[in-house]
Specification:
Strand order of the largest sheet: 10-9-8-11-12-13-14
CATH class of the largest domain: Alpha Beta
CATH topology of the largest domain: Rossmann fold
Order of helices and strands: HEHEEEHEHEEHEHEEEHEHEEH
Strand content: 25-35%
Helix content: 25-40%
Number of domains: 2
Largest sheet: 7 strands, mixed
CATH architecture of the largest domain: 3-Layer(aba) Sandwich
Shape: globular
Radius of gyration: 20 Å
Number of helices: 9
Number of strands: 14
């Protein structure tokens, strides 16, 4: 919780993408949410009203650019612009989930690099820094010419499995070669072995698991990814792991995108639990029982406090 002096200088604002997380962060900090309302004009354009002064304040706009990504991104840009024009001392874009991150390079001729375009837009709107979590590709930090703090949900996820007693006779599974570093970190935290799913994507949002590289027989398997979109990789991967002798399968990720038909696939997949965080809201009424949501609000609150106090953010993870 911040000091009384800090309370008068920090201003938190949120759009409509994940106000529950924003209010939880505010509660952790002991700071009231800023008085702003995001509405729409008759033609669909954003109608933002900031109803309090922000002159000389350090402002934080909490707005993940989750689906609908275009609308939520535009809200973020409009709020940053409004606060900068209102003479805020600084504006930080707090983007727990960075949309368009998977389009970070050209895979074929004439492809756009949307992750870079989004970075340009956030900077052009007037953001002074960005605070995000588990970017799909670490190099996206280099797309910005302003400071970027990329928080990690791994300690939160690993701690959940430790409390469940899932250590030792466990194998952590990377869903593809690109996720090996993330899976290796989880394996180190759980003192377990590592396996990799050999998959291919014949087309976007379609995954085919070809082989399981590593020993999973007689072990509890934990699949680790940064996000789950349509859940094809997770569902097919769980089936392959069970076929190769895994006794139980768990899955975890930071960002629950959950595009259709993710929920149906997760319900029917041979998975004990799917552990995610609340960087993206998962409505309880549409949430299968096997999905467990962990909060990242305390971590973001601590990072915001450290940014305000000009202290190290990276040292947050030194103890883990």
């Amino acid at each position: 919780m911040v000091s009384s002096e800090a309370k008068s200088k920090i201003k938190l604002f949120t759009g409509t993408s994940n106000p529950e997380l924003a209010h939880e962060i505010a509660q952790q900090l002991g700071v009231p949410m800023g008085d702003a309302e995001v509405g729409r004009f008759k033609d669909g354009e954003i109608n933002l009203q900031v109803r309090e002064t922000v002159r000389g304040k350090k402002c934080f706009v909490i707005q993940p650019t989750c689906p609908p990504a275009d609308s939520n991104l535009m809200e973020l840009l409009v709020m940053i612009d409004a606060l900068k024009r209102a003479s805020a001392a600084s504006v930080a874009a707090v983007v727990p989930y960075y949309g368009y991150a998977r389009q970070d390079r050209k895979n074929k001729p004439r492809d756009p690099i949307c992750a870079k375009l989004v970075a340009n837009l956030i900077e052009a709107a007037g953001a002074d820094r960005v605070l995000t979590m588990d970017l799909h590709a670490g190099q996206i930090q280099g797309f910005f010419d302003i400071p970027v703090d990329n928080l990690k949900a791994m300690p939160i996820l690993a701690d959940y499995f430790k409390k469940k007693g899932l250590v030792g006779d466990v194998v952590v599974v990377a869903p593809d070669v690109g996720g090996v570093a993330r899976a290796r970190e989880m394996a180190q935290r759980l003192h377990s072995t590592l396996a990799i799913l050999d998959k291919r994507r014949p087309q976007p949002n379609v995954a085919e698991v070809l082989h399981v590289i590593g020993d999973v027989k007689g072990k509890i398997a934990i699949m680790v990814d940064d996000l789950i979109d349509t859940a094809g990789t997770i569902a097919h991967g769980a089936e392959a792991l069970v076929k190769n002798g895994a006794t139980k399968v768990y899955a975890c990720c930071t960002h629950p995108v959950f595009s259709y038909p993710a929920m149906e696939r997760l319900k029917s997949a041979p998975i004990e639990e799917v552990i995610v965080t609340n960087t993206i809201p998962v409505p309880p009424e549409n949430r299968p029982e096997k999905i467990k949501v962990l909060s990242v609000a305390p971590l973001f609150a601590e990072a915001i406090q450290r940014i305000f106090e000009d202290r190290s953010v990276s040292s947050l993870f030194d103890e883990y």
